[in-house]
Amino acid sequence: MIQLDATFAALADPTRRAILARLTEGPASIAELTKPFDVSQQAISKHVAVLDRAGLVRKRREGRISRCELDAAPLESAADWIAHYKSFWAAKLDRLETYLNTQAENQDGEAS
Amino acid sequence: MIQLDATFAALADPTRRAILARLTEGPASIAELTKPFDVSQQAISKHVAVLDRAGLVRKRREGRISRCELDAAPLESAADWIAHYKSFWAAKLDRLETYLNTQAENQDGEAS
DNA sequence: GAAATCCACAACCATATGGTTGTGATGATT
DNA sequence: AATCATCACAACCATATGGTTGTGGATTTC
């Protein structure tokens, strides 16, 4: 799905993840979002545009400032997708356990 | 975190997600992974290399073939990161509900 | 009205990405 | 020994990405 592409791609950048983290504390302007970083306002503006296109941020012009607000909804599909694989990192531990048990049984008076 | 960067970046490509989906059915060679797609073997080899670098696939040379196996472990950190935002898409619904309730109260005996 | 603030458009640059083709190494098959 | 199958390295191409600077349009603010 194209939506997942955009979501994961948006999350792949640490600056963008930091922007999202900041927005969990409430809406912010581009200028406010720029402050913590050592990059230009334009760079942050581009990052926010990426997040906006991915649907993770809603940007609204209020007079001279751009009010950026978090919208975590697209993360739900991403989480759903990842959740499908949950059993596989659990299963890995299961297999390890089974293997160890097998080893224990095999060594119970018998060599393999 | 660099690990998250690699994980999310790896997941941002639909071909790579399809490869991971295929690997949930068990290990596969590069040739097997290539079959379903309309791209070259080299392209898939590159994709698998990306997944390997991200730690999502373990590739092992067995004679002439490369045995590729899923390792879903890095997805756990990704899921954890996303989970932090879970409350924010719930909160959004809460706010909507609150808003609707407020509207209902205001419109108590008044039409809109 | 003038000045300052906030923002995004455009052009540019370096590098990364996803794909191709060509090719050669290495392992299996006959 | 010869051939086939499997894979990855290299070079290349087009496009995307993340950053910069320059600039100009709006909107406050003085």
How would you explain this protein's 3D organization?
With 112 residues, the first copy, chain A, is mainly alpha-helical. Chain A folds into 2 domains: 72 residues, Winged helix-like DNA-binding domain superfamily/Winged helix DNA-binding domain (Arc Repressor Mutant, subunit A), CATH 1.10.10; 32 residues. In chain A, 62% of the residues lie in helices and 11% in strands. Chain A is built from 6 helices and 2 strands. A two-stranded antiparallel sheet of chain A has the order 1-2. In chain A, 23% of the residues are buried. At the A-B interface, α1, α2, α5 and α6 of A face α1, α2, α5 and α6 of B. The first copy, chain A, binds a DNA duplex (30 and 30 nucleotides) through α4.
